[in-house]
Amino acid sequence: MVEWRVTEGLVPYEDALAWMEARVDAVIAGAGGECVWLLEHPPLYTAGTSARAQDLIEPDRFPVYQARRGGEYTYHGPGQRVAYVILDLNRRRRDVRAYVAALEDWVIQTLAEFRVRGERRPGRVGVWVERPEMPPLSDGRPAEDKIAAVGVRLRRWVSYHGISINVEPDLDHYRGIVPCGIAEHGVTSLVDLGLPVTIADLDNALRRHFDGTLGRLES
Fold first, then answer.
1. Which terminus of the chain is more solvent-facing, meaning fewer CB atoms within 10 Å of its CB: N or C?
2. pTM above 0.85, yes or no
3. What's the rounded Cα separation, in Å, for the pair 29 and 74?
């Protein structure tokens, strides 16, 4: 069974990274089990393995950490729910694309509980929402914002890192980076969309939809 761990307060990023590394080692050694860890971080930026220096616009605004996950720059901070997912894909399905798609499905189904239509976009990992109330893009497409980020790392087919969903973060904090290297789109949150959702509400929905998405990854 997958352990669910929920931490109140703000968890320093170095502590979270050290815990994930140790838990992955334990899973590989057969001394620990799978886990989903729900938490919040203090304001910070993380750089994935594809991060470009020019996308860090304000390097002195918040601490910047090398995350060793896939992807580019992202922001973490209060009001954003981070879910670190440690799963043994040797027991499930050894397919990175299928795993990332399952994480996105998990977010999409969770958001649907709050009547938010989350969507994928080709070539852009994460979950997006259309903003019809905003001016369209220059090519006529509807404006859209990112509401959830996905970044993963695998070691011996054990996953770590995971997802972040914006509930009520300070969206101005994203101005210090080009989020995920995509300059032409913005970011949003559940509260920014006019929904009075709490972190606890989101946690309950994440748990309800885990088995139907990530729990169905089969070898």
1. N
2. yes
3. 31
Active site residues: 180
The greatest distance separating any two alpha carbons of the chain, rounded to the nearest whole angstrom, comes to 54
Q: Which residues contact 105 (CB under 8 A, 6 or more apart)?
A: 213
| Euclidean distance between CA atoms 79 and 169, whole angstroms | 4
Dist. CA 112–CA 126, nearest whole Å: 15
The DSSP symbol for 121 reads: E
DSSP state letter for 50: T
Q: Could you please report the per-residue DSSP string of 95-109?
A: -HHHHHHHHHHHHHH
Burial, 96: exposed, middle or buried (Cβ in 10 Å; 0-12, 13-18, 19+)? middle
Which residue, 102, 138, 128, is CA-closest to 186? 128
> How many angstroms separate the CA atoms of 127 and 187, rounded?
10
Q: Are 145 and 131 in contact (CB under 8 A)?
A: yes
Alpha-carbon span 73 to 179, nearest angstrom: 6
Q: Is 26 exposed, middle or buried (0-12, 13-18, 19+ CB in 10 A)?
A: middle
Which residue, among 192, 148, 153, has the nearest Cα to 48 in the 3D structure? 153
Q: What 8-state DSSP symbol labels residue 177? A: B
Whether the CB-CB separation of 23 and 32 falls below 8 Å is answered with: yes
Q: Please answer whether residues 10 and 78 qualify as being in contact, where contact means their C-beta atoms are separated by less than 8 angstroms.
A: yes
d(CA 111, CA 206): 9
